[in-house]
Amino acid sequence: MNRLNKIAILQQGNNKYFKAVKYPNPPLNVNDIYIVAKMGDRLDLLAHHYYKDSTLWWIISSANPGVVRRDSFYIRPGVQIRIPAGKDELVQLFEEFNKE
């Protein structure tokens, strides 16, 4: 899923930029998976493993504020990470949040 393909592109003079993207806050679910990160774990690799889609890394990132850094895919080894269940519902919420 290319999450930016439906995001509006705004233009100011000669500059083009994406409209601000809004991410849903993944609610807790009894089917969420909790893992302890190991050396080499990255958000995109975890998304590929659990969701079969590496572009859904933002779901894991959104579910773990204060645990994962916003400027890196890498996760510090030894920290507990929540992998939210219900990825399809979260993708749908993302699309609703970012309609034009």
Textual characterization of the structure:
- The protein has 100 residues and is of the alpha+beta class.
- The protein contains three helices and four strands; from the N terminus they run βββααβα.
- The protein has helices at 43-51, 57-63, 87-97; strands at 9-12, 15-18, 33-36, 80-83.
- The chain has a two-stranded antiparallel sheet with strand order 1-2.
What is the residue-mean pLDDT, rounded to a whole number? Answer: 88
What is the share of helical residues? 25-40%
Distance between the termini: 18 Å
Order of helices and strands: EEEHHEH
> Strand arrangement, largest sheet?
1-2
Which structural class best describes the helix and strand composition?
alpha+beta
What keywords describe this structure?
single chain; 100 residues; alpha+beta; two-stranded antiparallel ribbon; two-stranded antiparallel sheet; 4 strands; 27% helix; globular
Set down the secondary structure blueprint.
Elements: E1 9-12, E2 15-18, E3 33-36, H1 43-51, H2 57-63, E4 80-83, H3 87-97
Helix pairs in contact: 1-2
Task: Write a concise synopsis of the structure shown.
The protein has helices at about 45-50, 55-65, 85-95; strands spanning about 10, 15-20, 35, 80-85. By secondary structure, it is of the alpha+beta class. The radius of gyration is 15 Å and the shape is globular.
